[in-house]
Amino acid sequence: MAVTDEAILKIKDMILRGELAPGDRLPPEKELSERLGLSRSSLREAVKALEVIRVLDVRRGDGTYVTSLEPRLLLEAMSFVVDLHDDDSILELFAVRRILEPAAAAIAAAHIDAERISLLRDQIAEVDESRPVEELVAHDIEFHATIVEAAGNSYLTTLIESLSGHTIRARVWRGLTQENATARTLSEHSAIVDALEAGDGKLAEALMIAHISGIEHWLRRWSTSGPQAGHPDV
């Protein structure tokens, strides 16, 4: 094991044991390196790595602190990485969404209130085929986030959001508009809301599976044949 990796694990262990809690300031570098049996250079590298993944917050002139460790914060890096993936990786990410998001919809059906149902219907009513791609992307992000948030699990919400960033959604919606599939997609959104309003978790789950699978199928077809076969260059 690399020395830096060992340092990361030792700091992680301090957090897990409760020696460091969210918001706590780390001991001075010299004191902490001696306590953990590490060189100061190894400790610095570990702190840099943990800062990147938002476990630690280095405040110049003040000290190093443990962040809030909230799921949204810790999963920020995943969203960045997702946007950098190639077509094959995107298909794998959609396969994960196809597992998680229908389950979230089923849970949401049991908890969603009239206010959220109204919000979802308003979101659908505000867009149509004439809207520019950026507005369709914004709608898609907001629509799916509203449903997942209704499930009431912050880890699930953040994980699903991070699996499909803005870049991937823009790619999909550009393709859908060029294939005149926007109306069908919005109709699928409406059907999902109907199932949620009825409190039918199994139907909401099935409709969400069909919805995401349809987009996944389109992406697979495009990545295999490419724009040369008549598919949009997204």
UniProtKB/TrEMBL annotation:
Gene3D superfamilies: GntR ligand-binding domain-like, Winged helix-like DNA-binding domain superfamily/Winged helix DNA-binding domain
Keyword list, A-Z: DNA-binding, Transcription, Transcription regulation
Recorded superkingdom: Bacteria
Database matches in Pfam families: FCD (PF07729), GntR (PF00392)
InterPro entries the record matches: GntR_C, TF_FadR/GntR_C, Tscrpt_reg_HTH_GntR, WH-like_DNA-bd_sf, WH_DNA-bd_sf
Domain annotation HTH gntR-type: ranges: 1-69
GO MF: DNA binding; DNA-binding transcription factor activity
Protein name (Swiss-Prot/TrEMBL): Transcriptional regulator, GntR family
Organism of provenance: Herbiconiux ginsengi
